[in-house]
Description:
mainly beta
Amino acid sequence: MKKLLMSLICIAGLFTLPSALATNKIGLALDQGFGVAGQFNNINAFIGNDGISGDYIFKQGDFGSEFPFNWYVGGGAYYNWAGNDSIGARVPLGLTILFAQKWDVYGQLAPALDLDLDHDKLNFELDFAIGIRYAF
Length: 136
């Protein structure tokens, strides 16, 4: 019940953003399990079967006109309820490529500091995510 309530609150928060935002994307991804990924301006959000995550993208750019990729660096947090409950802070480093009109694919590596809530243990992890999104 706690997981369902937390997921519903996060989903509601995603759709209460102002409609004047320039970039809204939604799609499917692997991050905290398999689930729904969204980007709303500089906020990347994810709700999956293993947990939730949210990242603020504070720096982004491109590699020039000869490369089709864009890069980004952000900061964020996650809550993972699969296996042991854990929370963490992470720094996602990612690439995005537009492959069709309004469609993009992204991948990211995210060094993370993970706190295992069941065992009060602090770990360093390297998370990854990959997904596809549609802009609207």
